[in-house]
Amino acid sequence: MSALEQLAKGLAAGKIKVVDLTETLSPEFPHISLPPEMGQAWPFRIEEVSHYDERGPAWYWNNFSCGEHTGTHFDAPIHWVSGKDLPNNAVDSIPPERFIGPAFVIDCSKQAAKDPDFLLTKRFLLDWEKRHERIAPRSWVLMRTDWSKKSADPVAYQNYDETGQHTPGPDTDAVRFLVEERDILGFGTESIGTDAGQAYHLRPPYPCHYYMHGAGRYGLQCLRNLDQLPATGAIVVAAPLKIRNGSGSPLRVLALMESK
Amino acid sequence: MAEDRQLREFTCDPKFRKVLVTDGKTGAGQSLVKALAAAGADLIWVGHSEPWKKFAGFDELKALPQVTLLPLDVTDSKNVREVAAEIGGKVDILVNNAEYHRAYGISNRSGVDTARAEMDVNYFGLLRLAQEFGPAMRGRGADGLASATAWVNLLSIYALANFPPHGTFSASKAAAHSLAQCLRAEMRPAGVRVINVFPGPLDDEWNQLLPPPKIAPAALANAVVKALREGVEDVYPGDVAQEWLARWRDNPKALEKELST
After folding, report:
1. What is the ipTM for the molecules in this complex?
2. Testing the interface with B: which of A25, A26, A28, A64 to mutate, by most B Cβ within 10 A?
3. What is the mean pLDDT of residues B213-219?
């Protein structure tokens, strides 16, 4: 039996489970907001075209609008200045095989519960590897924080105070380690941003954006259900919309895993 | 006098009335809330968009016994519809002060995003509110002593003639002014007065580069309360607005030419 036949049979028999790692796109879902003097991403908005009514008797459909970086979304290297001149750096030109890869799920949920500004370090990753296995090249590293459990409460999810946003993320050394020593495909988080809320204070500012995209790697953010994934062994399917020269896009992120 | 039935019918006194102020995040919004509370409004709902960002003055507003804060974003049709469903049948006076304001005209800024945001809040925001709150307010135009009575729009004196240094903002206010005239026509048969307020530049962060005189938020708020009490339809508060109005009435073409130099 070929690998694909096995996959199809596994899916049909429920031996391979599909986990949806995606938040629902809605106007209520928290969106990124920059300081007011800067350009702003459009939040998700939706208007009914018709609803089996005088505007269209037999059909229901909507128009929606949003920025490329809305809801659960993909960041392409061209999103950041450090990746602007790389080849195949936009969502339409990234080779499609890069959209599928093994997932290594780093559980930081206890640490993030104690400290919303928790930074994932290289040391934490090395310890994780000792307990599990070495992070494989061309894989997705997903930072599980359980932050997505706050997503029904926009105030808690955004977690702003007078000093800005407080959400967990990786520190500079962790990002460089994953890119330079582990050659990963990309990094995913449960909060808004692959970087921590206070990452503009790090050097360089927003290290995950700077180094991941500078090395042609990708980002996934506003993920959910990472707590349902095994630490290793799942496969992530994350194909963004094919927007010409697009810097990212909302997308449906699926994980395939063997059920126990 | 405030309880005289006939006078209450002829005017829109906020006393004993329930009011929605659509944006409590701005200085003007907070001054409006305080002035309406001082004028005896029974209950004041205060909208705030992006509720995750606590704004300056939040605690002070929240401490007012009349005030109920609620998330309201006039760019979100679904949110406006839901808020109208919750409180639309109770609102006697709607004060739409939600505003998006950035400096510059056509050539000092690239792209249309800022201009679109101005239109989305200043024009489409009014349209969304009017579609969702208008019907219930029309239905309550003669609902006893505390009937639905007024709809206040915070426009700008730039709605009459474009102020090129704030050119796209002016255009959005002109669009809102035109729509407010349509709203006035639709609300009039029900006895709900539409009051359009045309201030000169407000003393706020988006007018920092303009020289004085600028109208203080408190002065604007007092002008709105006065207009409600007196039942006045069009209000031009402050020296700049009064001067522009006089020049505009005298010769709109001359005002346009003067503003273009």
Report:
1. 0.90
2. A28
3. 97
